[in-house]
Amino acid sequence: MKKQIKLNAFDMACVGHIQQGMWRHPRDQATQYNTLDYWIRLARTLERGLFDGLFLADVLGVYDVYGGSPDAAIREAAQVPLLDPMLLVPAMAAATEHLGFGITCNLAYEAPYLFARRMSTLDHLTKGRAGWNIVTGYLDSAARAMGLSAQMAHDDRYDLADEYMELVYRLWEGSWGADARSAGAAMGAYADPSRIRRVRHDGAQYKLDAIHLVEPSPQRTPVLFQAGASDRGRRFAARHAECVFVNGGPKPGVAQLVADLRARAGARPLCVMVGATLIVGRTEAEARNKLEDYRRHASVEGALAHASASLGIDFARYGMDEPVQSGPTQAIQSNVEAMARAAGPAWTKRKLIDQFVLGSRQPPVVGSAEQVADALMQWMDEADVDGFNLSRTVMPECLEDVVELIVPILQERGVFKRAYAPGTYRDKLFGAGALLQPPHPAAHSRFEG
Ligand SMILES: Cc1cc2nc3c(=O)[nH]c(=O)nc-3n(C[C@H](O)[C@H](O)[C@H](O)COP(=O)(O)O)c2cc1C
Predict the structure, then answer these.
(1) What's the pLDDT tens digit per position in 320-341?
(2) Phi and psi at residue 82, in whole multiples of 5°?
(3) What is the 3-state secondary structure (H, E, C) of 82-95?
(4) Alpha carbon distance 340, 338 (integer Å)
(5) What is the pLDDT of residues 434-447, one digit of tens each?
(6) What is the pLDDT of residue 228?
(7) By alpha-carbon position, which residue is closest to atom 30 of ligand 1?
(8) Which residue stretches of 402-440 are H helix?
(9) Does the CB atom of residue 106 touch ligand 1 within 6 A?
(10) What is this structure's pTM?
(11) How far is the CA of 59 from the centre of ligand 1 (A)?
């Protein structure tokens, strides 16, 4: 059987996500992001197209690096206003049966005990369709909002995350024995207290002494996503991630990154998804017209506000042709590296803006459905990725186009499923059971019973 393409919709509970300015398009409905109807419709569309998952990004601060102020981001709705993504999921889960949910949650500002309970709750309510994109944030604005003067240094954030993961694994996997309920029933109790362990931890960053408040959910540990690709980020991914989300960009660079991630993960299977924006038509001409139509609404200011925050560089301070100083960043190092790969070491604001085909640095793949399907298959072969995280343009038509025009072609070519596999999100993605297996560290924490 040919390698099957995985498809995720990449979204965020806000108006302007990656392609800034699209909300000004008369047909765009993203301004309805604060209604359940909008999200339920989206989830149903994705399930109709057999999408594997909806991947929801999140940040906990505003983009205020550009010009030292949040004004540009606010004017352009660049990821502000922004809702809590976790709260959208139960309604979407109730309206679907198979779609997975990869939810970004920043661990840096929340006690592992509280977060583990919320995620277990979601895994129960979705019948095992919860995933977690593990992030530690990249914004000083989030740190200030939480009473700190600045965020932790880049690599220290990953150390913090390693300790956090150990704790949540122990809560999800090691607190309740698999037989706590059956052993309880045998004695006329709800659960057998002797089959529930306290988790005790006294570490560099966290202290904990508690049982997990939630009985085991279908997957115990949600499907784990990670998206940082610096050297330290890759080390973290190799230990913890099941799915890795990588930025697009020139294929050879992505292929190298994917090969390195797979080598580091060793025997563990990794599902690698690459970011992509698709503009598809019934003909190439229709797609090109659509691009021109969308482009009229693209926001350079919104894209600069977003890029400044994720790269950790204030582009408002530079003239168009002034060389940009890109020293070590405390923001997303792999984004700075990707920028340097695309524009060369001596890059300027003009070179950055030249990359904004729509409203971001992610150039769209534009063409007829056959051409776009060809491009996706080339990515699979040449960069050894497992699938795509599709950024939105004009909602919901961009996703309806994928469902109606691209999915049938991929199915005909034998590279996309015709029905969902049964089971949890992890079963569907990897076909190896609902629970994480050794050598993943979560499996070592399990209280089998
Ligand atoms: C494609 C991609 C998507 C990301 N999405 C988010 C996000 O939604 N929220 C967030 O706080 N960080 C996000 N990040 C940041 C990273 O997950 C990571 O925590 C951090 O910025 C360090 O990345 P680095 O190892 O590449 O330096 C994303 C990074 C990449 C490359």
Answers:
(1) 999 887 766 666 677 777 777 7
(2) -145, 125
(3) ECCHHHHHHHHHHC
(4) 5
(5) 999 999 999 999 99
(6) 78
(7) 227
(8) 407-412, 425-430
(9) yes
(10) 0.96
(11) 10
